[in-house]
Amino acid sequence: MNGHKNILLKTLLPVGIGIAVVAMMMARDFDIESWHSIEWTKTSILGVVLALLFTLGRETGLAWRFRVLSDKQLTWKQTFKITMLCEFVSAITPTTAGGSAVSMVFMKREGIDSGRGTALTMTTLFLDELFFVVMCPFVFLLEPASALFGFNSDATTFSFGLKGAFWIVWGAVCAWTIILFFGIFIRPQAVGKVIVGIFGIRWLKRWKPQAEKIAADMALTGKDIRHRPAKWWLQAAGATFLSWTGRFLVVNALFLAVAPMADQLMVFCRQFVVWTLLTVSPTPGGSGVSEWLFTTYYGDMLGGAGSALVIAIMWRIISYYLYLGVGAIMVPVWIKNGLKNKKTDTYE
Q: How far apart are CA 101 and CA 96, in angstroms?
């Protein structure tokens, strides 16, 4: 019963943060004319349907990746269950933690042993980070930095702050990806010792146990995946690409529904910037931060923050609150089944 209460509280916290921020922005920016100006046509309905299909594509990519990485030990049904549970955990924890940290727990319930689950979790983390490293040059080839950061018009404090924050976060992602690469494929023992040594410094000692676990996980992952064939890696990378592009294209579909004349390429490229920044959001699932960032960043493409807020709310319902709702239903059942299995094991 206590577990159910904790889940309810953790679900309500990000919802409360998101609603509070949206309410604040609506009081400041929302104009009823923004809503009335939207023409709900067949194209609008098509856009919303496409947004839901791209969301399904996002989950299909994640499920496919779990299936590939587990060498098809996990069925499609199991991979979708793990994916939805991970999405729920991501929605109720800061994005720096995310759902991948507990995916090994979900996989263990589905028959993947702890060592293998650790390797799969670390591999998914590496692939996600690698996606952001590789995609960045392509994004800036498609759209110049001056357009992505709003320097085509009068530069603002937000524009400069956005640019600085993006490059700091992306630089940190690159550094972490390099550490993971060397720790998994090249010198796991040496990299592990360096990580543990750094967290042996006095003011970092409180995180030393986590650092030791990361070092052990990298070494274990290296043994498991270092000699995998190219086909295996191509499938895992393809699944990662499908998942992340599906995530980005949700917003393209919503722009098609609300602002069909918008520059779709710019919409897509700005999603890369948004999701890069959200990787370090301190709030559960990026609640509050996501709504504010989206509304402020896309406002110039829609003639004002009011119209951007309409799309931001739709975006969060599809890409965030949907997972809170599904997870809030699935997790209590998952816990209940786990307790039932424990009792069965005890009696046996």
A: 10
Contacts of 332 (CB under 8 A, 6+ apart): 3, 4, 7
Which residues touch 97 (CB under 8 Å, ≥6 apart)?
none
Residue owning tokens 């670390």: 122
Burial 305-315 (b: 16+ CB within 10 A, else e): bbbbbbbbbbb
Q: Supply angle C-alpha 131, 302, 142, rounded to 5.
A: 35
User: 3-state DSSP helix/strand/coil percent for the chain, to nearest 5?
Assistant: 80, 0, 15
Which CA distances in Å does 113 have to 21, 101, 103, 117, 216?
42, 15, 12, 6, 16
Whether 345 shows a pLDDT value over 50: the answer reads no
Measure the CA angle with vertex 46, ends 44 and 47; round to 5°.
65
Cα–Cα distances in Å, from 316 out to 86, 89, 126, 280, 321? 17, 16, 26, 18, 6
* Contact present, 155 and 142 (Cβ < 8 Å): no
pLDDT tens column, 66-104: 999 999 999 999 999 999 988 888 877 776 555 566 777
* Burial class for 208, CB neighbours closer than 10 Å (0-12, 13-18, 19+): middle
User: Which residue pairs, CB below 8 angstroms and at least 24 apart, start in 168-171?
Assistant: 169/276, 169/277, 169/279, 169/280, 170/132, 170/136, 170/276
> Which amino acid, residue 138?
F
Q: Distance of alpha carbon 226 from its chain centroid, rounded? A: 25
Return the DSSP state at 182.
I
What is the distance of C-alpha 172 from the center of its chain? 16
The secondary element (H helix, E strand) that includes residue 171 is helix 157-181
pLDDT for residue 346 is more than 50: no
pLDDT confidence bin for 30, thresholds 50/70/90: low
Taking alpha carbons only, the member of 276, 51, 38, 39 closest to residue 166 is 276
Nearest to residue 85, comparing CAs of 63, 64, 57, 55?
A: 63
